[in-house]
Give the backbone structure.
Amino acid sequence: MEKKLLVRVAPTADDLAHVACEIIAAAATASIGRRRFFRIALAGGSTPRAIYRLLADDPYMDFRHWQIFWSDERCAPPTSPESNYRMAKETLLDRLTTPPALVFRMAGEGDPDAAALAYERAVRELVPPNPAAGTGETPRFDLILLGMGVDGHTASLFPGSPALAEQERLVVATTAPTGQPRLTFTYPLINAARRVLILVSGAEKAATLRAVRTQPPDPNRYPVQGVNLVRGNLTWLVDAAAGGE
């Protein structure tokens, strides 16, 4: 797989959700056919909600071969309204008649540093690398879902965060601008993926998206600009409101 970049604009947020499902379904089918499993890291936030509901309603989706992880998490109990795991559980996991092969959540309720290290160890054990792709021994997800905040953050990689400079660790504890502790994938893990799908929805993100797509890369200011796959498909999927500028 060569390195590819694609930008797709959907007319509405609803259209974006349907296109995202098509992309995820195609990636799942290919991954299961080639490697028996589809290893995906889910995103939190508001945009993926409709996508997860559509996935759960798809009668042709074979979740028996899915291995589900999370690309970031708030440090809160899994029952908290702030939990990314809870959102995916309610919109996707609880609605499946056949459970996935694996669901491995980030332990947001624990000590952040210990939880990050434990998740990294689990990812290294459960997600195989592909040295032939030029990513060394870094685990290689089939698909990582990401979003983009109004400030240009992605996962829980925020502007000015020390986590942006991390080159060795794959999962770290970090802090949101609000002061809330978070757990997040780092660039080395994200950029080793076979495919990354960045979802951007809403007019409030239009100015940031224009800056991110037109200005020279400065991940310290716009962390989403640090998503630069070593070898794989990077797709920006935006609705017309977010792409308005």
Observations:
- The chain has a mean pLDDT of 96.
- The CA atoms of residues 112 and 174 lie 8 Å apart.
- The radius of gyration is 17 Å.
